[in-house]
Amino acid sequence: MIELFDLFTLGILLVAFTAALVDTSLGMCYGTILAPVLLIAGYPPEVVVPTVLFSQLVVDIVGGITHTKVKNFTRKNIKVALIVAIPSTIFVSLGVFLNVNLPTIITRTYIGLIVTLLGFLLLLGIKLRKTSKRLVFISSIAGFNKGFMGGGFGPIVVSGQIVLNHDVRPSVSIGDIAEIPVCIVGLLAFAVLGKLSFLPIYLVVTVPALIASFIGPHITMKIGQKNYAEKIIGVITLILGIVTLLKIILG
User: Fold this and answer.
1) How many Cβ atoms sit within 10 Å of the Cβ of residue 23?
2) How far apart are the C-alpha atoms of 126 and 14, rounded to whole Å?
3) 155 near 32, Cβ under 8 Å?
4) Which pTM was predicted?
5) Helices marked H in 70-199 — which ranges?
6) 180 in the Ramachandran plot: left (φ > 0), alpha (ψ -120 to 50) or beta?
7) Range of the domain at 123
8) In this predicted model, what pLDDT tens digit does every residue of 39-56 receive, in sequence order?
9) pLDDT tens across 138-188, in order?
């Protein structure tokens, strides 16, 4: 007979694998999927967010290497990756600080509104002129989100890039690769604040996520060649935004 603890562990393993598969194929939803499940399983926020950051770091490194091998990410994408990575890495520390000190309702509200808006823009096929300032703004919000709640990076960075007329395949791969320094700085910020301690849950989450990160980029390569890829990302982004807002409204 399987004990309840084993069922919880099995559930977390499956969720971590699924979250990493979605993240490395669509560039989003790792923390958005995994963080609520860990909270439901009884882990406090100060454990959940660093757990997500640590496992996400492993996923992004392996996923980034795989994205490069299948040519979702090439040399010409390095500049955009840096424009995304630098401001998001700077703002992740602010997110971590507020995670420890501030109620979440205000931040969740604006995250929900921004993600919902980006989802609508993608589904309606509305594109904005790509500028460095707009990309920096989007990346700063995404980095803050990652530090504050462990999720909300990919939906903004990936959908934001597509809205700014960037192709799907590099948008997804840049989202994963640019997140690497974000996760590192986020973990360091938790360490500085005395909220970082390596627990067994880190390994439970990271192992299945690592396996999935070898598979996801190959899916990106396939769907990125189809004209429905933007719509898939648009629908997921819109749903995430609406669900975020409904959670706030319904308490």
Assistant:
1) 32
2) 36
3) yes
4) 0.78
5) 78-101, 105-123, 132-149, 154-163, 168-192
6) alpha
7) 4-250
8) 777 787 778 888 988 999
9) 899 888 877 777 767 887 888 888 888 778 889 899 989 999 998 898 889
